[in-house]
Amino acid sequence: MSAVNEALIRDVVQEVLGRLGRVPAANAASTPASTPVPTDPACGCVGKTSALTKGQYGVFPSANEACEAAQAAFLQLQVKGVAARAKVVEIVKTLTDANALEWGRIELEETKIGRLDHKIEKLKIIKLVPGVEWLRPDARSGDHGITLEEYTPFGVIGAVTPSTHSIPTLSGNIVNIVAAGNAVVFNAHPAAAKCAALAVREFNRAIQRETGIENLVCIIEQPTFDSFKEMCTHEVVRLLCVTGGPGVVKAAMQTGKRAICAGPGNPPVLVDDTACMKRAARCVISGAAYDNNLLCIGEKEVFVLDNIADKFMAELENHGAVRLNSTQLDWLTREAFTLKEGQGAGCPEPVVNKNLIGKDATVLAKAAGLSVPEKTQLLFAETSKDDIFVKEEQMMPFIPIVRVKSVEEGIQAAKIAEHNYKHTAIIHSHDVEHMTAMARALDTTLFVKNGASMAGLGLGGEGYLSYSIATPTGEGVTNPKTFCRVRRCVMVDNLRIY
User: Fold this and answer.
1) Could you say which of 2.40.420.20, 3.40.309.10, 3.40.50.720, 3.40.50.10420 is the CATH number of the domain covering 268-461?
2) Average pLDDT, stretch 259-276?
3) Which of 2 and 166 is assigned the larger pLDDT?
4) How far apart are CA 106 and CA 31, in angstroms?
5) What is d(CA 343, CA 337) in angstroms, rounded to the nearest whole number?
6) Closest Cα partner for 374 from 385, 363, 382, 384?
């Protein structure tokens, strides 16, 4: 890797880690009574002893050691076959469900962002992530023989997970990656590395006990830029799976390895005058407030036709959202953003206040100068389409409401706000032409009609779940096939018996 590329990767990785927030780690949390794991006093991490971090149960001090162990595990998995893959999928789904309450609490204590009830739910729904049942071969026969196309593994996958959904993203990735026949090495976000390592230990304990395979899921205990670089450049790593912001995605794509990248989003919502206002308001609150708006698919700004805007905002209040006046919005804006000089003269760039990312609506309300009931899930205010809350993916339980005069104006404003990420968009409408026009204009990976954003991942809608949605690189919602090569086997001759 050239010095220029190395410097570039270092800059963008450090930028994205700063953007997502280097949240101070909580004191080592207790672990489930059903799977007791003492705390290592030497390093402050959850585990047995510092000696066991030399690789036992998948946790390694260096990327090189983790990659070598994962390669050995991949070779074991090849011998064990599809039955072992299915067993690993079952183990991961069972453990995430059984430990959801405790693991959700531990993740929240470490990261200090999001809501406990939704942390728990995100683990319990790992059962919706597809497994080996997705890998069906394609076969054809004819006068000249038989051809079989199979989905086969790459080998070792290098993965990066975010602080926003650390254990859920890790767990969902394991299901997809191992179902495809691969081993995996994780370089977790530093702000959520301890909870990720805890889950990896428990997965590997069960995998080794049930299949005899050691270190199928590996993780670097103290992830850094250097460990990221070592993982990405290690010769056994054939493919990267990166879930994070624009900086870490750019870094992965600079490594020279093929990368499946789940990047940022700023999902817009359009509400027209044919929609059910009660349903639209209920769905916007449900999606924008989910885990305090940490989801990349979550509703971030709403464009609503002027003639029904007042009715829509009244329904938001009827369903428990709290409206800010212009003065309160100004106070919140000053607390939520600071401006730094951009690359061009006179072009300040907004920086989100990390202390407000993923915090409860009550915390945001206090910053805005008011007190709201503890049960409040979402704040909102009427803004212009150029407001900083419209432009920036702020990951807070606040949503700006923008009036537009026509559906055409709303679609154009939504397209600008989405920044061409091609991630997620939502519409509330009973007019199919309006739905079609918005779908064509924004061309997003997920397009949800008359539902909350989570419906795009099978939660309240039809479909399957994944916490890695590969928008920059085009794979879409990841599944086991995403992590496979397609190999063709051909037998030539007249082999048909009829």
Assistant:
1) 3.40.309.10
2) 96
3) 166
4) 8
5) 18
6) 363
